[in-house]
Amino acid sequence: QEAQLRQSQKMDAIGKLTGGIAHDFNNMLAVVLGGLELSRRGLDAGAQRSEVLRHIDSAHEGATRAAALTRRLLAFARETAVDPVTIDAATLFADMADLLGRTLGDGVTMTFEDASRGWTAAADLVQLENGLVNLAVNARDAMDGRGTLTLRAEAITLAAADAGALTCGDYLAIAVQDSGGGMTADVLERVFEPFFTTKPVGKGTGLGLSQVFSFARQFDGDVRIRSAPGAGTVVTILLPRAAAAPAAPPAPEVVATPAGA
Ligand code: ADP
């Protein structure tokens, strides 16, 4: 009896994982297909070489991310643990600005606010990045391609009163706020259910937020959502603050410029 229950839980977990990966892979393929389509249209219309190259680069990046995802899947199949890395908001935002901008499209204004005070967290970077792309896709859909998206990092200390499922203490919070249509209470109540979607067949899988949630829980964090019809949505990923790293010998300085700057 108990073995049967364990087996069914395992199948459930595998089902969720497979669906989740298919969902991420689909997001990446959309970037590849979009880049190819725009390159072809550009060539047909006699567009500037630089514009066509930009679309090719975008397709290339999508394919590279898809390859990284399948590598991670293979690593998982071999039961190699995914090593959490140190996440800091400034690096995360700089690395993701380009991809998020392309996901959102030209009609959406994107702003970054970093009030993380340099706090860091330990988590799987690939999962976090995929999660943020999922949130951006949701925001874009909620805004019909037009509006404002704010990505905000905050240093938050949770007291017992607002800790909920979490331990009291310090958290690095990454919030994605959109100016879209928001959610009714009925929808808000169900968003973390796997396969719950209000989107047309073929557009939504209902796995985006449940994936983000299981990622956050995996690293002892949480996801909180504030939303109301007409008032937009804020989805916040909370991750426990990592202890400050011991002083390392100074590394050679690398200057990172956000792409497009
Ligand atoms: P999917 O996007 O495939 O539907 P999700 O789990 O990401 O799956 O989202 C579930 C549902 O939650 C969506 O179908 C939508 O109704 C609602 N939702 C999620 N994010 C937002 C948002 N930013 N604004 C409004 N509704 C949202």
Automatic annotation (TrEMBL):
Segments forming domain Histidine kinase: 20-243
Covered range of the whole protein: 246 to 506 of 638
Gene source species: Sphingomonas corticis
Signal peptide range in chain numbering: none
Domain of life: Bacteria
Protein name: histidine kinase
